Amino acid sequence: MTRLLTICAVLCLIGVHAGCRGRDAKAVDTGAPAKLAAEHPGGDSATTAHEDSVDDATSDGDAAVPPVVGAHTVVVTQQPFTESVIAMGVVAPRPGHYAELAPPASARVAHIYVAAGDRVTMGAPLVEFERAPFDAAAASADAALTMAQHAYDRAQRLSDAGIVARKEVDQAATDLAVAEGADVSAQRAQQLATLRAPIAGVVTHLSAVLGATADPAQAVVGVADPDSLDLVFSLSPVEAARVHPGAIVALTTGRQSQGEPVGQAVVATLGAALDTATRTVAVRARFTHPARTLRIGETVFGRINLSVREHATTVPLQALVPDGDGLKVFVVGADGVAHARAVVVGGRSETMAEILDGVRPGETVVTEGAYGVEDRAKVVPVR
């Protein structure tokens, strides 16, 4: 019995010791996280913030590296600048040096003496119509005039003798005047039965057909002086307001500036009225130094000089980049970085633009390749 009590006491001591060890282990396990939390406040959130800050730093570092592009550059200069406007025009005969002829009345074409392109002298026969109707009309008018003259003379004698009233003389005078007018018209029609060149020049067109009846409302032949041709340009009212007589016009044919140079002209007159169909103003210029012979009706392009400014800040047209409703250029600094800058453009020429505000002479701007440049991009000049 004593032995049994001893064994039970030993077992109780072993259980109590084991419980104490379990509590100590638990206290250690639960304390470790608390200690870590105390040493690292925020736990996982602090770690995440650190990782985010590393990612942000990496992103900022990538964005801070500017792109590198190759482009042509040029230094902004100050030089004389000629502002001009390009207009399309047509070669036209000068007033007073061109004629179109038609028959005096409906008549059949009897003879054709020329062809289109022939050079003729003043008074040379061009087209002749059947003369019989015109000759008969002239003879009839002569006879009517003779009778009217006799009637007037008779009425005048009787009036002087007091046999007829004065009104009979007045009526006879009226009839005589009508007969004289008819005779003049008949004689003129008889002369125009043969159309003759009123000026020396070249036959520009011929529509008469041998044996066909010609209409007096339709010209059958035209003659122009090839040495007296003008250029007629069509400009908008705003452009025409800046053109002045005496302005120099550089002429080309074909595709504007890429066409064939054909000489120079000088602005002679400006239209005072607006063409209601095209809403343009006619500007007439005269040749001064033709490079070759131009033909009536030929289309030409003219670069009309508007004004010259001796000290203008200029850049090539390729440097201008559209920016919304305005324009900008990319200015390259000493560090080679391009900066977008808005500019105010004045006049333009074929290759240059006048800058009124935005850049200064001596600065470097991007020309060819400007459309591929971004703000703060590193520019490598291309030679």
- The secondary-structure class comes to alpha+beta
CATH topology group of the largest domain:
OB fold (Dihydrolipoamide Acetyltransferase, E2P)
**Care to count the β-strands?**
22
Main sheet overview: 6 strands, antiparallel, barrel
Name given to the CATH architecture of the largest domain: Beta Barrel
Please indicate the count of domains: 4
The gross shape turns out to be elongated
H-E string: HHEEEEEEEHHEEEEEHEEEEEEEEEE
Number of helices: 5
* Overall pLDDT: 82
Q: What percent of residues adopt helix (DSSP H or I)? A: 25-40%
What is the chains' assembly state?
single chain
* Rg over C-alpha atoms, rounded to the nearest angstrom: 50 Å
Unreliable residue stretches: 8-63
In percent terms, what proportion of residues is strand? 35-45%
- C-alpha termini separation: 115 Å
CATH homology superfamily name of the largest domain: RNA polymerase II/Efflux pump adaptor protein, barrel-sandwich hybrid domain
In spatial order, strands of the major sheet run 3-12-15-14-13-16
CATH class of the largest domain: Mainly Beta
Could you please describe the fold and organization of this structure?
This protein is an alpha+beta fold and 383 residues long. The chain has four domains: 2-63; 68-80 and 311-381, Beta Barrel (conserved putative lor/sdh protein from methanococcus maripaludis s2 fold); 85-94 and 226-308, Elongation Factor Tu (Ef-tu), domain 3 (Beta Barrel); 98-223, OB fold (Dihydrolipoamide Acetyltransferase, E2P). The chain has helices spanning 2-39, 43-63, 132-160, 166-191, 237-240; strands spanning 68-71, 73-75, 77-93, 98-101, 107-112, 119-120, 125-129, 194-196, 201-206, 213-214, 221-224, 229-235, 248-253, 260-270, 281-290, 299-316, 321-323, 326-332, 338-348, 352-357, 364-366, 378-381. It is elongated.
